[in-house]
Amino acid sequence: MxxxxxxxxxxxxxxxxxxENEFTEQINQLNIQHTQALTPDSLTLPSLHPEASPSxxxxxxxxxxxxxxxxxxxxxxxxxxxxxxxxxxxxMSLPMDIRLPxxxxxxxxxxxxxxxxxxxxxxxxLSRMSRxxxxxxxxxxxxxxxxxxxxxGEGTYATVFKGRSKxxxxxxxxxxxRLEHEEGAPCTAIRxxxxxxxxxxxxxxxLHDIIHTERSLTLVFEYxxxxxxxYLDNCGNLMSMNNVKIFMFQLLRGLSYCHKxxxxxxxxxxxxxxxxxxxxLKLADFGLARAKSVPTKTYSNEVVTLWYRPPEVLLGTTEYxxxxxxxxxxxxxxxxxxxxxxxxxxxxxxELHLVFRIIGTPxxxxxxxxxxxxxxxxxxxxxxxxxxxxxxxxxxxxxxxNMLTALLLYDTRTRVSAEASLRHPYFLSLGENIHSLAxxxxxxxxxxxxxxxxxxxxxxxxxxxxxxxxxxxxIF
Length: 476
Fold this sequence. Notes:
The protein is of the alpha+beta class. It folds into two domains: about 90 residues, 2-Layer Sandwich (Phosphorylase Kinase, domain 1); about 240 residues, Transferase(Phosphotransferase) domain 1 (Transferase(Phosphotransferase), domain 1, Orthogonal Bundle). Helices cover about 30% and strands about 10% of the residues. α10 packs antiparallel against α13. GO terms for molecular function: ATP binding; cyclin-dependent protein serine/threonine kinase activity. One of its GO terms (cellular component) is cytoplasm.
């Protein structure tokens, strides 16, 4: 129990910023009503925005024949400005479409009036305790804030439900992790929370809320309709090459954001790439992710699902960095372009054998130091020559083959990075504007970026939520 209390103190809630929206309109209505109740056409309440706060009101100067004091009109020295939520955003990050309870709005209005009376700074930062209390007043961190609509799947440690938030009326995914009193929260859950709360990107799944009870730890995620594996299944494993390129760019965009922050995902696979009905792809399941520290530490080699695991990890290395993720990106590119996994091995030895048969058995020139690897020598693989990748992925153009080759290099020092991949000639057809997007902006905010109908398109590309035994098995 103490472990969970420490965990709860350790990770504070972090959700997207709020802008001018329905919440602002609710506050504006309160302002108008309050203003009219005082002096209908004469008095302007100070704004919460520090720069928009008008000076204290003052009477008109007396002049000969002036009206009596009871008839004096008051005015603000600063013009009336629309209420801004910028200061509230500084105090508490809130979802853009949040619907705040009336009780909280009244409390916020009263606090604002007290600040005005006491001439307190309107943008005084909230303490951690005050912020947590305010979020609790709104409804965050409470199970009753969310309605379960059905089970999406169940695993050894967690059950995932489709749900709805009473605060926003939006669908959410509720990942309910069972807690053992002796062991506390699983390390994978702690990693997932600690990393996701600091990752705000259009191509990374958003963690909205954390709910802790004695029996469970529930992570509230944004809800997405499908994943890349389901997408492939529902388009008959025959994707439009235009769509392959758009999904590939989104994957690299989210991964580059992680790598810049020295975060390794370590479990890239189609089941961990979620897709919504707009075609937005988002990285999910950071349970195996790690923050890459400096200097280099050693890590477990039991990471990354076997089919997408790079050869250096298959051969036992525990010292690795961002290139570990890039091999998996190459395997995913191959799978999107062909509709089948590239290296579907059932054991480490078979996986290496499949890799060497296509990429070629590594030698010192392609993988410096491989001849000294005891595990590699113990397998005694035949000396396979590398095969032209175009023979295996005929639908990829020349630039696509070039990128796939750069992703599947044995030498991690020369394997292409996520950031460099985004500037690869393979993506030239997407235009230059796609490189200027803000981190939180979708690629589909650009008019020129559109998905096409897949050649293997069925009645619906996106499978109805919750159908199938393998629904979201990856996020357990």
